[in-house]
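Continuing the batch. This is chain 6 of the set; chains 1 through 5 are on the previous pages. Same settings as before, nothing changed between runs. Recording input and output for traceability.
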Amino acid sequence: MYHALGYGTMMYLQAIMTLEPREVETAVTALKQAIRVCVKLRKSTKFGRPNYDKYTDEEVHAELCYAESLLLRSILTFLQDENLISFIKGAMRIKQCYKSYQECYKILERRRFQDERMKMHFESGVRMGIGAFNLMISMLPPRILRLLEFVGFTGDKASGLADLEVSSNLHNGLRAPLASIILMSYHAYISQVLGNGDGNINFASSILKPCLEQFPKGALFLLFAARIQEVNGQLDEVSASRGRGRGAAGARSLRTVHRLAELVAPSAPSLLLADDVVFRVSVPSSARANLRRFKCEWLFAMKYAEVLSRESSWSKSTYLYLKGIFMLMSEDQSAAMTEHVVAIFTKVPELKVRVAGKSLPIEKFAIRRVQRFFAQGNRLTLPALEVIYIWNGFAIIYKSAPLAEPILQLIEAKVAEVSGDGQSKTQADDLGLCLLLKAMCLVCRRDSAGAEACLRELVSMEKRLVEDKHLVPYAVAEMGFLALRDGKPREAQSHLEAALNNYKGYQLESRLHFRLHAALEELKRQKDPAKTAGQSAAGRP
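Output for chain 6:
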């Protein structure tokens, strides 16, 4: 049973990392076999209340393995076909999988286990599954969350994190490392990108420590170590950790780690790229790095984008766009460099992919920016800094204010340039982006008044914006995030709800909704922590 599940899981990882149809088919076949094995070994209880004490160890583990196999199979269903029937099948399998996890939770609570070791392995899997479901669903926007709760899912973040922590602390448990990976992914990546940088990095570090002791050369854990150091602003240690990762994993395994990072957090490689821009470009040696050295490092970041565009199958379109914008930001603006960028940007729309029948929002954004580049005569305004903002990279810069200084100098120089360009049709859009980026730098410098002034000026420009209508709701949301950080809950709620309810149909809308949802949930916790704790206790099945 576990051999079948293990093999199916490895084939699943390979399929997710490559997205090649042949690999997906192989994974589906392996997982179907795992499901058949589990079904044969599961306890059949069609009538009456089951007596879990009569279940054998093999039968209770079969229920857990069945839930895990079904979950992986349902995810592949979305990738295998893009028609409506596949979506319905996938949704039904996920619902069936969730019911199976709920049954496992009942077994865990009611069955008297004779072998504590078997119970530990079972509990680590049950709590990992239930916790991951709760955490994943809790991060969805309220409208989708209410719909899922109506059909029987629960989405309580505190409960999910608590279950994952229990699973992670069962250090000898079979799924404990997986639970640790999910927790570290949430605190170090997901909460930084889809939240407001509110992940518990100290907690992630405490989880990582036993993992590194057990797997000192584990490339994925070394990746998390570097990420945690980046988030904490420990710049000198980051390169050392990544160097150990390269030495431990080797070139071939390093490519796999990049792809695994995409699996754990879909935006991770791009975020790592943005991090490299922030940390390798902004502060090569000190906060007073000169503008020349700052610009020259964009070519270093470009090399990372080039590697990803060659070796990652997830979004070559996005990685090529990143490569192009880093070249645009470099000091070399010769005709040959511009010709190279034009050749790269020409390929971006051609490489667009669809995942689960949907285009990736970041790819759609990149394609629009490429179109803008050609329409404006091969020009974009601070595109690499814009990417850092989109991936919420300023939440990292906030941890170390000097990082913002060279970026702010670059923005102010661009503001002067844009202000003098009265012939451009998108002058207001370019100036609006500069104001948003400047506001973020001022937030990093703890200049709340200056940041708010920039954001209010941007909002006042709403009717002048031609293409970048998304800048206004983002600016309103940033005023809410700023008020929340400064301890002004009423003002924060007013801005956050305005950003959520008053603007529709703009670029990257869902990304902002994730951040708004996280901020509004934080407001609820601040207002009534006791009630939040009570909801967490009720979040378990």
